[in-house]
Specification:
Helix content: 10-25%
Number of helices: 5
Largest sheet: 7 strands, mixed
Distance between the termini: 23 Å
Order of helices and strands: HHEHEEEHEHEE
Radius of gyration: 15 Å
Shape: globular
Number of strands: 7
Length: about 180
């Protein structure tokens, strides 16, 4: 992957993901769920992590040519959970919410595994899409998820962002068990 492309990927990465990604240990693969263009897959691969990038759409970005990134095209909203039995040292999710499988994520974390999740929250309709409540987190919903699975919260926000465009966002970084060195 070219240095220019990698530089663009890192600049395009979520500040939240960039902030907490250094906490991810190298004990196992990292899942970039609903990876989209691969901006976080590229960031994680640049840090030396083996990344499983999953999305329903086939990738077109050059970023997926990295030997550190395996891409799987999967229906993440089908009748059965397509990642059954897999475990990860970290799971990264941005701008995606499908509640029927939300509770699966903490169960897929290895001991010391990190969940980095950031998506739209209630109140976002005032700024445009998404506006459907099915795709907006309820107040404290990620905190409830972390508490249900005894994840230790390292960072949490439920805020209105102005950049890159106005949005209501909820985000969390939580660890399963004790934080391990990278």
């Amino acid at each position: 992957m070219s240095q220019l492309l990698m530089h663009e990927v890192i600049l395009d990465s979520s500040a939240w993901v960039s902030r907490y990604a250094p906490l991810i240990s190298d004990s196992g693969p990292v899942l970039d769920l609903a990876c989209g263009s691969g901006r976080h897959s590229g960031l994680l691969a640049s840090m030396g992590h083996s990344v499983l990038a999953v999305d329903q759409n086939a990738p077109t970005a050059e970023i997926f040519n990295s030997s550190f990134i395996e891409f799987l095209q999967m229906d993440l909203e089908g009748e059965t959970w397509p990642l059954e039995g897999r475990t990860f040292s970290a799971i990264v999710v941005t701008n995606y919410l499908y509640r029927p499988y939300l509770n699966r994520l903490p169960q897929m974390l290895l001991d010391g595994g990190i969940l980095i999740y950031e998506t739209f929250a209630q109140g976002n309709a005032q700024f445009g899409k998404p506006s459907n409540p099915d795709f907006l987190l309820n107040p404290g919903e990620l905190l409830v998820l972390a508490a249900q699975y005894d994840l230790r919260v390292l960072g949490y926000e439920d805020i209105c962002l102005e950049e890159p465009k106005p949005a209501m966002v909820q985000r969390i970084c939580a660890v399963n068990g004790q934080l391990r060195g990278g």
